[in-house]
């Protein structure tokens, strides 16, 4: 490997590769940190090569130091999966193969391991004369080898190497873009029609978010390239991603269709086109493309540019589509398929299945079977999540029973006293809400008034206000309206409206209004749940006490959720006519409402 200032990465790479090679060769091109010291802990074969703005020159110098029959190429910011070491060793026993290509899984966001860009790169090859690299930035190896050995045998092997070099923190720290673009600019001045360098320059702009510039470079490369070229699939993919970002949808469809003529099994293109069709409201076409992607499965290694394009990604989007169109049977089917993919939360998939079962009027036994699977998924605080889920589904009796189970379960949990007290308070809060919704007002009042958790008591205030009114309990009313917090202030204003008063403005600040609006809409939902229509009509005036431009939009969504379709359409149309405001969800609701009309 060649390295420079890799003290943050090198040890991870060397540990991951331990025991796989007879010798480790590291070439340093001018580190000013502790890279060399780290390297010497693992190998005596540390060499130095002056940096001359040419990665291939440095890489070829490292090859010249290798004595073994086979060479494995790694970067300092790579990491091998430990369970693949023996498999790689087995590959070296077959001398009929000259080069093995492995999957490079590029981690773009360290907090989101699901979104991985995949490249196919030559990583393991025989150590033969003339086998060397070309290309000052992104090295090319196989094309050079074929000139030396026209009968070169290349094989794709199912080996995954994680690459962290594209993480924003690493790129920024090492000024990679600036360095690469300077080298590429010099190369393109010498040969402006070099398709690979045009592609690489486009990729540097793409990484910086300069999508228009990136597309222009990609287009120049596209106009010159042979579709059989090894990087054509990645070039097309990047062009389409630029078109998607720039909303150049006509170009997207044109280039996607053209590419599929050359590569009809290019799964990622069907998946991407499905995403675009969904975005543009072409739902039937989206479903066709997504199902095509699933039928093809993950592309062969050379075309695997987006990890999951042939399995969990289209499945996720199909779940979303069928959920939005209230086809809960198909949504549940695709959610059940999602459970098998480690990239997707099993718990979240089960949660959606439970929601679908409620919509399909499934039996309590079927629902509890899914809930027990959620408990088996070993998610921390799973009883808390299940109580939340059941309250969202408005199955308050079942939620109450799971709150009781959660409290019982605490006795067998090995947790701190602090955590036990915190969870006890949460289950007690859930019990109070459930008791309220099953009309056991006196019990709910007692449960919530005895909460000893300040934060949960604050959340309980809308319920305490209603309970105080229903049960004529002055202390409950006082508790709900006496507070400097947002919820207490809103409850105070609501109580004033209910009793015929004229409350003062809560705020005119837009940012603060967003926080107030969240509280207000939570109260709206409580009132709609218990069908307090008269009180709800009075509560609507709470929106006059804040400065909200999206109140009509959010009311439209709320009414739609509660099947008040005429009111939903009225509010959404007012949002458009008064505030010129609509979003994707609002547009889909209007689309669905128009379908419902005769």
Automatic annotation (TrEMBL):
Keyword Transmembrane helix annotated: no
SUPFAM superfamilies: Nucleotide-diphospho-sugar transferases, TPR-like
Primary enzyme class: transferase
Top-level taxonomic group: Bacteria
InterPro entries on file: Glyco_trans_2-like (IPR001173), Nucleotide-diphossugar_trans (IPR029044), TPR-like_helical_dom_sf (IPR011990), TPR_rpt (IPR019734)
This protein's record includes keyword Transferase: yes
Pfam families: Glycos_transf_2, TPR_8
Alphabetical keyword list: Glycosyltransferase, Transferase
One MF annotation (Gene Ontology) recorded for this entry: glycosyltransferase activity
Residue span(s) of domain Glycosyltransferase 2-like: 1-119
UniProt-listed Gene3D superfamilies: Spore Coat Polysaccharide Biosynthesis Protein SpsA, Chain A (3.90.550.10), Tetratricopeptide repeat domain (1.25.40.10)
Enzyme Commission number(s) of this protein: 2.4.-.-
PANTHER family: GLYCOSYLTRANSFERASE, POLY-BETA-1,6-N-ACETYL-D-GLUCOSAMINE SYNTHASE
Protein name: Glycosyltransferase
Lineage: Bacteria, Bacillati, Bacillota, Clostridia, Eubacteriales
